[in-house]
Amino acid sequence: MKGSLAKGWKAGLATTWTLGKVIFPVTLLVGILRHTPVLDYLIQAITPLMGLIGLRGEAAIPLVLGNFLNLYARIAGILTLDLTVKEVFILAVMLSFSHNLIIESTVAAKVGIKLWLILAVRIGLALLSAAVINLVWRGGSEMAQYGFIQKSEAAPNGWGEILLDAFGKGLLGIVQLAAIVIPLMLIMQLLKDYGWLTVFSKWMAPVTRFLGMRENTSMTLVAGLTIGLAYGAGVMIQAVKEDGVSYRDLTLAFIFLVSCHAVVEDTLIFVPLGIPVLPLFLIRVITAVLLTVIIAKLWKQPDSSARKEPANEKKYHSV
User: What sections of the chain are H helices per DSSP?
Assistant: First the structure.
């Protein structure tokens, strides 16, 4: 028991350090950018495109906030606008596929997935889903009734407060990361050392096989589905280093998870916006399953050949 806890604690600290080096500077940078004209310029740039996906120009505000900041910033952005149920639903679906892009996509790249692939899948799904919903759904014209209104945070006064606020949020991000990743690594190590992980992988085998992956990808999928990409990356890093998860399976797992991760939190957070959340949940799950199965069928390259190059192998073990 002590040996397992010590090994899990060490793995948790190492993973927190690896991900913290990404999350802290990105959080700091975005925290500063939100108080500059940069986000306003982005909003102005994409406003003309909103009409193509059934949204008015001002809907660009929650889109930019959601993609650059966290889950709750997108909700706050929606709550400041008078939108129809259809518009809010479109935003919810888009932001479910594409949110917190900088941190989550950078973490994915840290694990070993190509950054352009993650961005292409997430942004592509967001735009495609919005266009399809706009064309297919003829209802939802009534105004959305929000269940609550969040108070806006007081804006920092001057660059000193802006930097302090951004630095504090960066540190908070590291603390939250450690609070989730370290216990998770301890649990994972105990499961592995006592043989429970093998049993769990066998239970999940039909699901992973259906999605075109091997059994050892099961914990990666479960971690991403429950706690999201950024925090679930800790399990993914360990899986690559210790469980021999191939590049093909890792890529398929990430394609599934960028479409459908943190499904409970990401779905329930939209309940106060007065939209049907069950269709939102089903759209994410069905899209993730179909996309992953199709790519797995098309990707005929054997697992072993995906890991032959020394550069790739070095990348995995240096994470």
Answer: 2-33, 38-46, 60-68, 71-79, 85-97, 101-111, 115-136, 158-193, 196-210, 218-227, 229-242, 247-259, 263-268, 277-298, 310-318
- Higher local confidence (pLDDT), 150 or 105: 105
Find out whether 115 and 106 touch, Cβ atoms under 8 Å. yes
Instruction: Specify whether the CB–CB gap between 261 and 97 falls below 8 A.
Output: no
CA pair distance 313, 195, nearest whole angstrom: 27
Examine the pLDDT at 190 and tell me if it is beyond 90: no
Confidence band for 319, pLDDT divided at 50, 70 and 90? very low
Residue pointed to by tokens 């889109």: 63
Token readout for 61 is 């505000």
How is residue 218 written in tokens? 């099961």
**Token pair 């390259």 in the structure block, residue:** 301
